[in-house]
Amino acid sequence: MSHERRRLKIIIISDGTGETATGISRATMTQFQDRDVYFTRYKNVRSKEQLDAIFNEAAVHHDLIVYTLVQAELREHITVLSRTKHVRTLDLIGPALTAFSNYFSQEPSAEPGLLHQVNDDYYNRVAAMEFTLNHDDGRNLQSLHLADVILVGISRTSKTPLSVYLSQHGIKVVNVPIILGQEIPEEVFKVDQRKIFALTIDSDALSEIRKKRLDRLGAELHTGDYADMTKVIEEIEWANSKFKENKRWPVFNVTDKALEETAADIMKLRSMRKNNIFKQMKRDEEEEN
Predict the structure, then answer these.
(1) Where in the chain is the domain with CATH 3.40.50.2300?
(2) Is the pTM of this model over 0.70?
(3) Superfamily of structural domain 8-104
(4) What is the per-residue pLDDT across 101-141, written as a single tens digit (0 to 9) for each?
């Protein structure tokens, strides 16, 4: 006589996304491939009332509860519920927190959801880097409005390396080269002008940078005026005149400045602008009320 096995349920409880507990549970289940189970996940559980409701449900079918809760008070409540309601439980993070706490002689912060925040920050940085690389050197200007920062400047003013550095801080950057004798792309003037940051450089420094670039490219016998001082000065003066026409574009001189220093100045100004926008929105709301 054969007995049909009922499908079993494993309940995941987490104060974050529950991905850690789910991943470990699924990895464990690979060792029990003949068992038919399904998972129910409860995310962002932060109160005893939520736990009470979950345990009432679990007690009906004697489900297994696997949990990752960093707050000791909630873990202790689960211990009581497990005993009184006869529900099997598995604490995946409590023993680890205790071991680490003993090793460091320090209490854990017990702040829920931190891993999810870290993951979000990581994915935001990856997305920003992908966006920035896809918009290097004036490409894909049709999506210029999606940028957080727009860098404009002539050739060899650190637009690309600065863009990449900023993107590593989760900032989506488009860099737009401006070229003597050509109009600045009209898309630049259709976006929020507070996103635009202009880059300039001293003529001696730019000429030297361009000469070194030609040397690296094996162009010692180059007969053009790419690195010619007269042409360099003309380009810089023309670019600076364009920047003066657009008074909302702050200008950063990158001469002899570390990349990190220029990036820090841009991020500081960007933060100040965002705060001012927020304050203005609050004033507008107060006036409406």
Answers:
(1) 8-104
(2) no
(3) Response regulator (3.40.50.2300)
(4) 999 999 998 888 777 666 677 788 889 999 999 999 999 99
- DSSP 8-state class, residue 117: H
- Per-residue model confidence as pLDDT tens digits over 22-36: 999 999 999 998 999
What is the spatial distance between Cα 238 and Cα 136, in angstroms, rounded to a whole number?
A: 22
The amino acid that residue 97 corresponds to is L
* Alpha-helix runs per DSSP H in 192-258: 203-216, 229-245
Q: What is the CATH number of domain 120-288?
A: 3.40.50
Average of per-residue pLDDT across 258-285 = 80
64 pairs with which residues across the strands? 10
Tokens read off for 166: 């900023």
Which residue bears the tokens 């001469």?
Answer: 255
How far apart CA 263 and CA 159 sit, in angstroms, is: 11
